[in-house]
Amino acid sequence: ATGGPFTLFAPSNGAFASASAGSVEDVLTGDRDRLRALLARHVVGGRVAVGGRPGPRSVVPMSGDTLSLHPAPDGVRIDGTPILDANIQAGNGRIHVVDAVLRAPGSDAP
């Protein structure tokens, strides 16, 4: 996709470090389709603000499935994953740093 705006849910370095051993490396160096699917799960078309709306809501990333944003005592979470830093402005959208690699539904690997 080109243009934008986009919202990126970007895993922190710690999120990659805590992913199952070898799984991220396998995706990065292996099957391009799996890599595209992994990246698409972290990108949403449009600017998605976090923290300004009460209650849970859903967003649809470029992968086509649904991610759930919901408030939690420690801030906002996406599909149960803490958002560590929210609403970082970028030239073509917004970035939210998340504490895990967002996995496909029913998957234990990225």
Describe the structure.
- The structure is a single chain.
- The protein has 110 residues and is of the alpha+beta class.
- The chain has a single domain (6-98), classed as FAS1 domain.
- Helix content is 20%, strand content 35%.
- The protein has helices at 13-18, 23-29, 32-40; strands at 6-11, 43-45, 57-59, 67-72, 75-78, 81-90, 93-98.
- It has a 7-stranded mixed sheet.
- The longest helix has 9 residues, at 32-40.
- The radius of gyration is 14 Å and the shape is globular.
- The chain starts with 5 loop residues before the first strand and ends in a 12-residue tail after the last strand.
- The model has no long low-confidence stretch (mean pLDDT 84).
Proportion of residues in helical segments = 10-25%
**Fourth-level CATH superfamily:** FAS1 domain
Instruction: Kindly provide the name of the CATH class.
Output: Mainly Beta
CATH architecture: Roll
- Taken together, the total number of domains comes to 1
Principal-axes shape call = globular
Structural class: alpha+beta
Total count of helical runs of at least 4 residues:
3
**Mean pLDDT metric:** 84
Question: Mind describing the biggest β-sheet?
Answer: 7 strands, mixed
Q: List SSEs in N-to-C order.
A: EHHHEEEEEE
Provide the gyration radius in Å.
14 Å
Distance between the termini: 21 Å
Describe the strand arrangement of the main beta sheet, using strand numbers.
2-1-7-6-5-4-3
Q: How much strand?
A: 25-35%
